[in-house]
Amino acid sequence: MEKRSIAAILSFSVVAVFFMFTVLLIHPFGNPVSTEMDDDIISNAQTDTGANNAVTSVVFDYRGFDTLGEATVLFTAVAGVVMLFRRIKK
Known about the structure:
mainly alpha; 4 helices
């Protein structure tokens, strides 16, 4: 096997293991962990951020740096996959 194929299989295996652990460790659907923060965001989102939509205020104001980090991770993952699977011209 080529080194590239071995690297692709290894990368896929690592991601698959992380997905399996994530599925096993996630809290059950419908059982909220905490409702205090939810109630605070719903009641104060418009006055704190000026956004009419509570979801928009959470994504862009309350968790702005987190969203930026997620976008960076997504871009890095896509760039890594493109580099891994591109053909090298000989």
